[in-house]
Design goal:
By secondary structure, the chain is of the alpha/beta class. It is built from 13 helices and 15 strands.
Amino acid sequence: MTDPRPHTTGASQSELRAYNERLLLSLLHQDGALPGSEMARRTGLSSQTVSVILRKLEQDGLVQRGESQKGRVGKPSVPMSINPEGLFSFGIKIGRRSTDLMLTDFCGGVRAERRLRYPYPQPTEVFDFIKTSIDEISADLSAKQRARVCGIGVATPFDLWRWHEQIGAPKASLTAWRALDPATEIARFSSLKVFVINDATAACRAEHMFGSSRRWRDSVYFFIASFIGGGVVLNHSVYEGGMGNAGALGPLPSQRADGRICRLLDSASIRELERQLNEAGIDSSALWQQPQDWSPFASLVDQWLEETACALARAALTTCAIIDFQAVVIDGAMPAPVRSRLVERIRRELPTLDSRGLILPQVEEGQIGANASALGAAAKPLIAQYLLDTHAGFAAPN
């Protein structure tokens, strides 16, 4: 009988070096510029080991040297930091209403972006757009920058072909996605490594790496888009799960304002606001336009906020009954003022629920917004090849 549990094996000298390089890069990515002495203190590595690794990383162009800090006892310390030009990555979100593509640097700075909108996604149109966008953006890079593009991350809802009814598309219109692998399609026109990730998990990664929620050891993340999804952070690392779909919060049981039982994706998604706008004869296309402005239909937004906040407060309590999350982080593809109001309403609602036996989490506002899935997708090649991810293991950079 085969033992399904993976066994821990010893590490070679090269694997240890790769691990320690990732450790230092991850520390700098999370905490910002640090001198080698402080990095040695935080990691438990010897000062000599840290010095050797930093010299190699600097030679490789992945870190850069800051200004010498004088005025302290002993010799001046020199802080090291991530070099934004050290690596680049493409991030793509293939969504139900749009495909977003961006090029980011090693620090998460967006260097270029493109967007394709549609009523529903068609493979030929989507991948033609991706190819054209990558070609155009790459043409604007220097030869050195092109050589430092380390991969392509693709964020997409799993089983996209099953969502035709919810987005109002003909049933046959999404069938082609059923047998389609985004990595295979992109490999037809790009030699870069492709990493596919669930769209809501990608948004969670973006918030964890570049937002304000990294201070929480354990948190649950809700991202409200066409449909609500989410992610889970355990021990300061995003947990994707064995099938890559951990934190798929949309199917959680929920309740409508009239008392009817439904799923969370039916009671706390922008699709519900879109439905209400359409019923009122109001053009709902403004929901998806950038920059976002929902003020023309403020009264319906107010109603939607009330119902969504109540549903999310109950969902937050449910998730905290499974794992003792310190925080619940709320983000979404909505204007920042609307997101702030939603978070405040959830904070008021949560203490009114029956929470006997539970410690209520803090409710925090996410910081990334509509670009979260594409930004998290762009982070995936960086994490997979250069940073530590304790829930996914690692492979040495090529």
